[in-house]
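Subject: sequence -> structure tokens, single chain

Hey, anyone have a minute? Need the predicted structure for the following. Not urgent.
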Amino acid sequence: MFFEVIPTEVFRNDGGILTYSSEIALKPGQIVLIPLGKKTVTGIVWQKVPSVDFPTKPISKLLSPIPLPKHLLRAIFWLSQYYLTPIPLVANLLIPAGLTSRNALKGYLEPQEGTLRQKSHPIALKAISLNLAQKKALETISGISGNTKLLRGVTGSGKTNIYLKLTADTLQKGQSAILLVPEIALTSQLVKVFEQTFGENIALIHSKQTLAEKRQTWLKILSTNAPQVIIGPRSALLSPVQNLGLIIIDEAHENAYYQENPPRYSALRLASFMAHCQQMPCILGSATPTLVDYYLAKTKHTLVGLDQKAKNTAVMPSVQIVDLKKREDFLHNRYFSNQLLTSIEKNIKDRHQTLIFHNRRGSAPLTICEECGWQALCPECFLPMTLHNDSYILTCHICGHEEKVPSSCPNCQHTGIIHKGFGTKLLEMELKQHFPKAKIARFDGDNNKNDDLASLYNSVKDGEIEILIGTQTLAKGLDLPHLATVGIVQADAGLALPDFAAEERTFELLTQVIGRVGRGHLDQAEVIIQSYQPEHPVIQAAISADYPGFAEYLLKQRRTQQMPPFTYLARLTSVYKTEKTALAKIQQAYNSLSKNPSLELSPPMPAFHERTSRGYVWQLIIKSTSRESLRKSLLPFRNSQYTITLDPPSLL
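Reply:
Had a minute. Here:
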């Protein structure tokens, strides 16, 4: 007998499927060991084939008698085609590391078993209470045709209760559910609620698990057909769960759902494909969905709104905007306004908390006039330009436009043009000097792993920490009962990034962090926003929590600029040790692609991070109104010296 097998290692430039012989009958989806060159690797059985007229090698061993679910086999091929990725790279995502190690399968998938385990008792679930708005949202979800549905719920509206009810209904039908979260450590409250509701039916996947623990979890999921709930980050979507009936993606706006390393893919798009295959619901939940998802949901009539706070005690926070250009408001500290310092002092006295937010995502310096707030924007793309210190030139990384750095402001002729920023470490130092007796904690990417938000959450929740300082880590889904004030140190910092998604990302972060207060725990809530551009439409929309208004504003811009969702994007990059070679290779690609009239190309340009440990990085940004045309045009560059990124959420 002969079988086509997908190896989990790339064996040639075009990747693909190999044919092997076997003395035993095999099923599609079973995991086997196969010889590949001089190595033995894992493979996934694809299908049985008739006799072949060429020599074949025998399959070495059957590892898993229980086949992977059919929806995952279809996902392998879809991901490979949709994202121009060698199929072995995709197949490798489905099999945990160390599956071939000694005793790895003992007690789970012994080859002689080949049967799924059943649980002997029925599922007992706790009652899930819903308010009128949540019940209406659920009715809308069930009444909408189509599989993928966007649940846009304001912060504090109780999206979790809807997740719980949908999951409970799925389990009662004898089906399983997958709940994706950006990172379990940052959504511990949501996970805890699910664990309390569904008990032993929960299977957790997270970054702190060892390889052995991840493998054991994977084997438990595969070896049972009892209804279960899989909770984890992006990779949990590829868990081998049987009889899948529901996918929920919480905080669906997060970039964490896009895998930056090969194979590059969006978990949201994959989830939609899987939902279509299974004819099941896929719920994207967010207070600030991506503009692309919002536009698609609105045009396809799959948008569900949840605009009411869940708690009757919730209060609208009072909002103060402090203009960073008015130095009289910064008499005591150059980073914290008089108003913010007064609020912090009052909160310490009242035993309430203050959250100080400043996001250092990205590395480009801010080029602005400290007198009037002018920014160096590209005249073609209307996006902030990046300073290149070596040439002292401002460059747009979207279209390649270049300008000299002005010696004075073109708007007010002031000579105070600045190119600097500041981060959370400096803010922490300043606050410790100003409030030496206060208990202060900083949460960002520089934190010690043993001093992260998850390990300190009880101290934060109990109010022991008086001042929290952090980046986007603190903006994600946390319910802080003692939090009275949110201080945003520089609300417009993200607007300076040279990226088409800069305004969208800024609105999302501001809305999420503002949503941490006024959730019904205290009778007071305050937000103090410091900005060089207090009247900017993004900041004004975030203050009023007006997502529809913001989306309308940004969609008009995107349509004018021909950016997503009105066009499709791809980035083609070339990395070499010498800049001359990197430029030459990307120029070759440009010359080839420019012959295609359906494409719009940027000129060859250095990437945002121009130099990495691998060498110089040059790129092309490619647009097309047809994704299929874009995909086909890039086929010649697949599996070559180029890197293809389709549908990038950002161009940084």
